[in-house]
Amino acid sequence: MARPISARTALCGVILHPAGHTRSPAMHNAAFEALGIDARYLAFDVAPADLAAAIAGARALGIRQLAVSIPHKQAVMEHLDAVEETARLIGAVNTITRDGERLVGANTDWSGAVRALERERKLAGAHAVVLGAGGTARAVVFGLRERGARVSVLNRSVDRARALAAELGAERAGPLDDLAATPCDVLVNTTSVGLRDPDASAVPAAALPRGALVMDVVYDPPRTRLLRDAAAAGCTTVAGKWMLVEQAAEQLRLWTGQEPPLERMAEAFDRAGTAQQGSEEAT
Ligand SMILES: NC(=O)c1ccc[n+]([C@@H]2O[C@H](COP(=O)([O-])OP(=O)(O)OC[C@H]3O[C@@H](n4cnc5c(N)ncnc54)[C@H](OP(=O)(O)O)[C@@H]3O)[C@@H](O)[C@H]2O)c1
After folding, report:
1. pTM (2 decimals)?
2. Which of 99, 230, 238, 247 is most buried by its number of CB atoms within 10 A?
3. What are phi and psi of 210, to 5 degrees?
4. Which residues contact 77 (CB under 8 A, 6 or more apart)?
């Protein structure tokens, strides 16, 4: 049972646009309930033109923590009092936490991604391949490098792969076609290919590295074509839901210092997905 709302109840939330549906409120409210934290978490649809006003409002209302989703992860940085070094290096903030009177930006996508992978194996020294060179790829490449993996970035637009690799210290960059010829113990798809399309994959099944660890950041559908192909190739697979749950858990650690109930959050994620099947969703 959730605690009754009182004058002391803390408010948290996620800003995104368009609102569509997001499973963040379900995950965070489940965690608050399990940990006995007197807080509620809501979703706020904030159009880009209203971003400055929304952050000023969050400041004035004393909102304790805000997750930041598409399309605000870069633009929000200029409205904050401080941005942690990792978020600055990645170039995106997905979490704003109130620290006294200050709003501090952080990025938990990178740690969410590596924690999800570390459920299965250590990353130090691994040959990792990241498919994609967009915003999520930046966080994933940063995280893999942070853990000591050797990273290759493969992307449809090779120039973007090269630029990202040079900036974040990846060893190789190339087109998606290079996968079969690239050393790979850990493969992470960060492209949006497969999103709400169970038949699409960014790479052909024949190119998958047999026996590797494979994660798809796409979590709708829960078992993407890539994950099904990877399982058939003898790979260990990690579903995108675990990255989302782990990055949300890291947000809770940042605010409360408490250890989040991961399984309860994952169950809430699943229930929220069943309730909103077929609807739009942002991360
Ligand atoms: N699980 C999680 O916690 C989590 C967190 C954040 C995001 N996500 C998911 O990550 C995905 C990417 O988000 P993002 O913000 O990084 O997007 P983004 O910045 O727009 O980047 C999109 C990437 O996908 C590639 N791409 C798009 N369509 C393609 C196609 N038809 N064939 C090959 N490559 C294609 C793009 O290649 P080009 O450079 O060639 O255009 C680019 O590398 C989304 O599905 C999002 O929902 C998941």
Report:
1. 0.95
2. 230
3. -60, 135
4. 83, 87, 88, 92, 93, 105
For 111-239, the fitting CATH number among 3.30.1360.120, 3.40.50.1220, 3.40.30.10, 3.40.50.720 is 3.40.50.720
Give the domain ranges of the chain: 10-107+243-282, 111-239
Indicate which residue's Cα is closest to atom 39 of ligand 1.
157
- So what's the pLDDT on residue 129? 98
Query: What six digits make up the tokens of 123?
Result: 């990353």
Q: What is the CATH number of domain 10-107+243-282?
A: 3.40.50.10860
Of 190, 220, 265, the residue with max ligand 1 atoms within 8 A of its CB, to mutate for a pocket test, comes to 190
Q: What is the pLDDT of residue 3?
A: 81
Residue 118 corresponds to which tokens in the numbers above? 């570390």
Q: Which residues line ligand 1 (CB under 6 A)?
A: 109, 112, 132-137, 155-157, 160, 190-193, 195, 202, 217-219, 240, 243-244, 247, 283
Closest atom, ligand 1, to C-alpha of 131: 43
Q: What does the pLDDT look like over 248-270, one tens digit per residue? A: 999 999 999 999 999 999 999 99
Identify the residue whose tokens are 């930006």.
Answer: 105
